Amino acid sequence: MTDSNAGSAAGKNYDSKLHKTAVYIRQNWQLYVIFMLPALLLTIIFRYIPMGGILIAFEKYSPIKGILHSEWVGFKNFNRFLSSPDFMKYLVNTLKLSIYGLLWGFPVPILLAFLLNRIESKNIKKNVQLVLYMPNFISVIVLCGMVRILLSVTGPVNLLLGTQINFMTMPSAFRTIYIASGIWQGAGWASIMYTASLSNASQDLKEAAQIDGANILQQIKAVEWPAIKDMVVIQFILSAGNIMSIGFEKAYALQTDLNLASSEIIATYVYKKGLLDGDYSFSTAVGLFNTVINVILLITVNKIVSKMNDGKGI
């Protein structure tokens, strides 16, 4: 049998299997509906139905009257937020915290993946990965408690430096504390995707590069970087698109009355206005504004990166 005949036979077998699968699905579609129904219902109930709450942003919401019967005020809540004297402060704090976090935190998992890929001993590699992944499983609140203890006046950092500085009351130190603790907690776990992508790097090319005398940086550039490039692009687009979505819990847990100048961000402002002050309409409008900015950023960054990366994006 020639190669062309063998290829034709393989193609026919594949088409036959595909046809049988399609027939089986058509005959037993009820089974698939039963299996998919719980997931579909959960998605509709917890993802789509709550979207109706967006209407609150355009109303003077009253819990007694409900969403459908509250007074309609249009864009009044948005105008109130945009014209607020504190609007720029909250926006700048949010952008600084997220952009600095992206610039300092995004490259770290990539570097960790490259370093882990250089470890040849499997046992040592597993132990190092265990140490790097463990912080990810620490609760955010527990992490913030650890940070407060470490940086307190009588904490280990001050004892080591021989000082008595309360870092948690310094607005200038808040962003550094927030970003550094975030990198420590999440960088190891985030490196998993890049480590997995590096397994696709050709070992033959790597050995050939070593024989040709290529140093570590040259090996990374020629062999390992192409294997994770697409993953890096996707993760960067997603991270840049979520610039405005800073976690509320951590910012609020590290917040003190004396560092509000840099720690008060849109997420904490929404929490205080919505749940503490009971101003549901205004807080919903602020949250919706935040979401719209995120969507715009995601689309913009995706288009920019696609043009720079030969049309490859999300």
How would you characterize the overall build of this protein?
Helices cover 72% and strands 1% of the residues. The protein folds into two domains: 3-61, no CATH class; 76-308, MetI-like (MetI-like fold, Orthogonal Bundle), CATH 1.10.3720.10. The protein contains 15 helices and two strands. A two-stranded antiparallel sheet has the order 1-2. It is an all-alpha fold and 314 residues long. It has helices spanning 3-27, 29-48, 76-82, 87-105, 107-118, 122-133, 140-150, 156-161, 171-198, 203-211, 216-241, 248-253, 260-263, 266-276, 280-308, and strands at residues 59-60, 71-72. The longest helix has 29 residues, at 280-308.
Question: Keywords, please?
Answer:
single chain, 314 residues, mainly alpha, MetI-like fold, two-stranded antiparallel ribbon
Corresponding CATH superfamily of the largest domain: MetI-like
- Helical run tally: 15
Low-confidence stretches: none
Say how many strands there are: 2
The CATH topology annotation of the largest domain reads as MetI-like fold
The first-level CATH class name of the largest domain: Mainly Alpha
> Radius of gyration, Cα only, in angstroms?
26 Å
Major beta sheet, specifics? 2 strands, antiparallel
Percent of residues in beta strands: under 5%
What level of helicity do the residues show? over 70%
The total domain count is 2
**Gross morphology:** globular
